[in-house]
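Sample pair:
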Amino acid sequence: MVLSKCGLKDAYLFPVITCMQMQIQRKSTQTVHVGNVPVGGMAPIAVQSMTNTPTQDVETTIAQIHRLEAAGCEIIRVAVPDEAAARAIRKIRQAISIPLIADIHFDHRLAIQALESGADGLRINPGNIGGKSKIRKVVEAAKNHNACIRVGVNAGSLEKDILKSCGSPTAEAMVESALRHIDLLRSMDFHQIKVSLKASDVKRTIAAYRLLSQQSDLPLHLGVTEAGGLFSGIVKSALGIGSLLLEGIGDTFRVSLTRDPVEEVRVAYEILRALDIRRRGPEIISCPTCGRCRIDLFRIAEEVEQALLTSTLDIKVAIMGCVVNGPGEAREADIGIAGGEGVGILFRKGRVVRKIPENQLVAQLLEEIRSFEKGKV
């Protein structure tokens, strides 16, 4: 594939995938460690998120991370805008069980302080972290603390000379920025590196990751930055991250939503489940409803989803609204309900268990799931 220096024409070519080729062939990359979590190689694709609390507010930040841990978050990132935030990492890190990454911009001294406070890794932006002497100090601190560094390229903050050369923040410009910084870190004998290339534009993000994946075997952190609120964020992330994962590109990722970060983790696992890469917790299938539905399926589905948010039980739960597809889908699930006129029929492993009044559906469905989890079926 031949690419012009700043053009995207060929970078948008999608691979031809036939039904016989749908098995995902993941690209082999180097392995780095973020604390005790391996990233790259054939390690499981790790799910990340980022707190949206003031890092200086230690108790609030710890509480949010505990919620994220319960939802399945495996690596957490915190913003470090000042020295107080960098110092706060010490207490936060001691109170959580997953690795912590410090997000650094503008001031290399904050990166050093964050590492001294116990951060397991850094995310630095090549466009704003400072010159070579400052980066060398950060690298020496990372070596001393056995920490990894993510080269986090963002389309909105590329180096001025690269922007001048390419005219705009193209995929090639993003890759050029990443490779320049990778070479700099390697020249300092630092190799615990992973890379991200994020833009708010899905096609540009995909093109950048594809291009870098062809030129490097470093582990890649995927994401579509500034993806938006719940709906636009889910769509952009599912398309961008999902497309790359389907091609075997990516070793860890974060779904970016203007939302409670627990929702980011929830969406991340749904992306992995949809591609049959990883499974965590119950798979809930439910119909979109139509005029035949005679129960409040929206409420029932939402209450069941919320109740099972932190469950790690690998089962399929069907919540169906009427007698057309409901019984069939419910029978195919491990546990399911099919709605009727103010009632629901409970199914377990394809068998009808009993009829339940609508006002008891959620409670009895959850009780049946708890019974399943305890092996009482």
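Residues 8-14, 16-20 have pLDDT under 50 and may be disordered.
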